[in-house]
């Protein structure tokens, strides 16, 4: 199959929205292509075209819902989170401070009131109303997720800012999920060793291990939070990500438990 205007249309939507859920992408593909190839096939064809431009479309999981999103990212490592001048100095400063609040918190989130109060500590002035507008846009563009008055790390931050986090924070400040070995900000915490697991990784683990145990210290972990987890309730298909990786992009560790489907209850 050759690269067509349909591929361009798909890329256009991903660029405009910043992040497109796998469900929305599938719906769009069915409309555009009227063929039964997998989503990964089309994304791979677009990624081949994007490679010389140092860009790629990557699949990233939302820590809060377990839903997956296709995101267009630069493959050039940006350790400074400069966002290519997308934001004003005040916005950038607020953004970095909120990211810091989330990273240094125990549960991977920052209350919105505390985030707005950060306005008074910025080097460049910003009103709370402006900050509120800005943060609403950041949620819309999936840089943050807002739930119950708290900001969490959004899929675009997870897709694009890992090099910045690694360059800016100590190893102790950054948490790694013991199941998939990827960075984790919010998830299920072991009450004994305090290690944090992605909720999706933990939900997958709990399907094969009953009761599930902490992979680090073997303590039995509560499954109470899994029942509130969207991906679990939606029976989201969790498919492997390797096929969409380009040579330049970071290779992910494949986790055998990640490929399992949620079966209908
Ligand atoms: Zn994980
Ligand atoms: Zn533990």
UniProtKB/TrEMBL annotation:
Belongs to the NSE1 family. It comes from Neodiprion lecontei (Redheaded pine sawfly). It is found in: Chromosome, Telomere; Nucleus. One of its GO terms (biological process) is double-strand break repair via homologous recombination. GO terms for cellular component: chromosome, telomeric region; nucleus; Smc5-Smc6 complex. GO terms for molecular function: ubiquitin protein ligase activity; zinc ion binding. Keywords: Chromosome, DNA damage, DNA recombination, DNA repair, Metal-binding, Nucleus, Telomere, Transferase, Ubl conjugation pathway, Zinc, Zinc-finger. InterPro entries: Nse1, WH-like_DNA-bd_sf, Znf_RING/FYVE/PHD. It catalyses: S-ubiquitinyl-[E2 ubiquitin-conjugating enzyme]-L-cysteine + [acceptor protein]-L-lysine = [E2 ubiquitin-conjugating enzyme]-L-cysteine + N(6)-ubiquitinyl-[acceptor protein]-L-lysine. The keyword Zinc-finger applies. Component of the Smc5-Smc6 complex. The gene is LOC107227854. The keyword Transferase applies. It comes from the Eukaryota. This is Non-structural maintenance of chromosomes element 1 homolog. Its EC number is 2.3.2.27. It is an enzyme of class 2 (transferase). Residues 243-265 are annotated as: Disordered.
């Amino acid at each position: 199959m050759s690269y067509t205007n349909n591929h361009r249309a798909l890329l256009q939507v991903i660029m405009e929205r910043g992040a497109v859920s796998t469900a929305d992408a599938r719906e769009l593909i069915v409309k555009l292509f009227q063929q039964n190839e997998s989503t990964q096939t089309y994304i791979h064809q677009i990624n081949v075209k994007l490679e010389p431009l140092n860009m790629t479309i990557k699949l990233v999981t939302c820590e809060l819902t377990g839903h997956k999103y296709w995101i267009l990212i630069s493959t050039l490592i940006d350790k400074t989170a400069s966002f290519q001048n997308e934001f004003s100095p005040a916005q950038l400063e607020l953004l970095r401070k909120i990211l810091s609040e989330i990273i240094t918190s125990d549960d991977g989130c920052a209350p919105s009131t505390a985030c707005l109060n950060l306005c008074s500590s910025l080097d460049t002035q910003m009103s709370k109303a402006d900050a509120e507008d800005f943060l609403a846009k950041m949620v819309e563009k999936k840089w943050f997720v807002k739930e119950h008055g708290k900001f969490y790390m959004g899929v675009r931050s997870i897709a694009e800012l890992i090099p910045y986090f690694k360059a800016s924070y100590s190893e102790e400040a950054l948490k790694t999920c013991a199941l998939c070995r990827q960075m984790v900000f919010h998830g299920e915490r072991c009450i004994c060793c305090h290690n944090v697991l992605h909720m999706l990784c933990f939900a997958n683990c709990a399907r094969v291990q009953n009761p599930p145990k902490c992979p680090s210290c073997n303590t039995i972990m509560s499954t109470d939070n899994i029942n509130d987890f969207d991906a679990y309730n939606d029976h989201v298909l969790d498919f492997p990500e390797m096929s969409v990786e380009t040579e330049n992009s970071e290779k992910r560790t494949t986790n055998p438990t990640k490929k399992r489907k949620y079966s209908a209850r």
